[in-house]
Amino acid sequence: MSERRLVWFTCLAHALSLLGFAAYSALLPTFIAEWTLSNTEAGWIGGIYYGGYMASVPVLTALTDRIDGRRIYLFGTGLTVAGLSGFALFADGFWSALAFRLIAGVGLGGTYMPGLKALSDRLTGPNQPRSVSFYTATFGMGVSISFLLAGEIGAWIGWRWSFAVGAVGAALAFAIVALVLRPLAPRAARPQGALLDFRPVARNRDAMGYVLAYAAHCWELFAMREWMVAFLAYVLAAHGGGAAVLRPTLVVAIANFLGTFSSLIGNEISMRFDRRRWVSAYMLASALLSAVIGFTAGLPYAAVAALCLLFGALVSLDSASLTVGALAAVKPEQRGATMAVHSTLGFGAGFLGPLVVGVALDAAGGPSIIGWGLGFATMGVAVALGPLALALLACRRAD
User: Fold this and answer.
1) Buried b or exposed e, range 123-140, using 16+ CB within 10 angstroms
2) For residue 266, which of 226, 325, 207, 188 has the smallest C-alpha distance?
3) Phi, psi of 361 (to 5 degrees)
4) Domain membership flag for residue 188
C-alpha cells in the first residue's frame, strides 16, 4: 500500500474511533437536568475522560518504542468500545457515568498517540512531518463529527444511542487498523533504560518547551469542548429559547471543524517561519478571546455563536505545530516516550480545565454572565502560560 493511502486509512480509523468523544459534552445540559448534577459534578464527569487518558498514556505510548503501536491501538479501541457501550447501557447517574467515562478515556490513551506512532513508524522522508499534522488535525474533525452526530441522534432517539453509535465507530476503527496496518518487524534499535524512564525527555529542553505549551493548549481546548454547548444553550435560553438557525451542538461541531483546518494552516506557516514565534502568537490571540468571550453571554445568540466559531478556529491554530515541534526535537527511538510525556501533561491539563470551569461557575452562584465570564477566563489564563514556557526554555537552551 502507498504511504498516501496508509495515511488516509489511518486517519479514517482515527476519526471513527472518536465518534463517541463528544457525546457527553454535546448533551451536557440533558445530563445536568436529568441527573440533577452540580456544575462541579458535571465538570468531574467531563474531566475524568482526560484523567483516564492521562493515567494510561505514559505506559501505553512509551510501549510503542518497544512493540508495534498497532497492537496498542487495537487494545485501546477495544477499551473504547467497552466504555461507550457501558455508558449507553448502564449509566444512570454521577458515579456510573464517571466509571464508564474513565474506561473510555483509558481507551483514548491507547489510540490517539499510539496510532500516531504506528503511522509515523511506517512513513519515511518528508512525508512524515506533514502526515503528523494531518493525523493530529483529524482529531479535530473526528470531534466535530462527534458533536454533530451526538446532538442530532440525542435529539432524535435519545442520548443512549449517541454513545452506542460511538461504540460502533470504535469497532470499525479496530477492523480498519487490523486489516490495513501490517505488523512491523522487531526494531533493531531499542531505547535504553526502564520503560517509564522519562528523564531523557525531561532533559531535552527544546522538546519540553513544546510539551509544556501543549499542556496549556489542552487546558483551554478541552475546557472549551466540554462547556461550549452548555454556554450556548444558556445564551439561547436567555433570549427566549426560540429556534436558532444553528443549534448549539451544530455551532460547536462547525467550530471544531474550523479548528481542523486552522491546525493544518497554522502548522504550514510555522514550518516555513519561526515556529516558536508563530505558536506564541497563536496562543496569545486565543487567550485574549478566552478572557472575554464568557462575558458576551448577554449579547444576541447569533453574535455569540459567531464568536464561538472564531474561538474554535483560534484555539486549534497551534495544535499540530506543538506536536510536530515536540517530535522534531527528539531522536526516532525516543518518539514514543516523548509522545507519552506530551500526552500525559497535555491531557492532565485537559482533565483540570473542564473541572476548573465547573468550579468557577458554582463559585459564581451558577450560570450567569459573570459565571461564564470567569469560567472562560480560567482558560485564557492557562493558555497564556504556553508562550511563557516556550520563551523560558528557549532562553535556557541559548545559555
Assistant:
1) beeeebbbbbbbbbbbbb
2) 325
3) -65, -45
4) no
Average pLDDT over residues 330-355: 77
- Structural domain harbouring 13: 3-183+198-398
Counted domains in the chain: 1
CATH at residue 271: 1.20.1250.20
Tell me the per-residue pLDDT of 370-394, one tens digit each, with 9 for 90 and over. 999 999 999 999 999 988 888 887 6
CA distance 287 to 17: 30
pTM: 0.77
Residue 93 lies in a domain: yes
CA 396/CA 378 separation, integer angstroms: 28
